[in-house]
Amino acid sequence: MEIVYTDCQSCGTSMIRDERGLGGTNTDGSKSLTYCSLCFAGGAFILPDMTVVEMQDQVRANMKKVGISGFLATVFTRRIPRLLRWCVERVGGNV
Ligand SMILES: [Zn+2]
User: Fold this and answer.
1) Which residues lie near ion ligand 1 (Cβ < 5 Å)?
2) What are the backbone angles phi and psi of residue 39, rounded to the nearest 5°?
């Protein structure tokens, strides 16, 4: 289980640009190699009830705030449902 992702598997943001330093934290305080600090802290998702659509809306809004065009933001957020967090949820239940 030593896969290192270059993008957060929850929001799709590049881990390299993670403001608080590469990745969220696991239960034992070690760095998460899968999720960024904005999505994941202390071994749990910061917003555990968030749906994939809500995540897409939030990421799109954040990208707009930093001046990225709506078109580019839509292209970027379209891949979010394929990220690990959302694939696992789909396997786990209600499709
Ligand atoms: Zn993230």
Assistant:
1) 8, 10-11, 36, 39
2) -105, -30
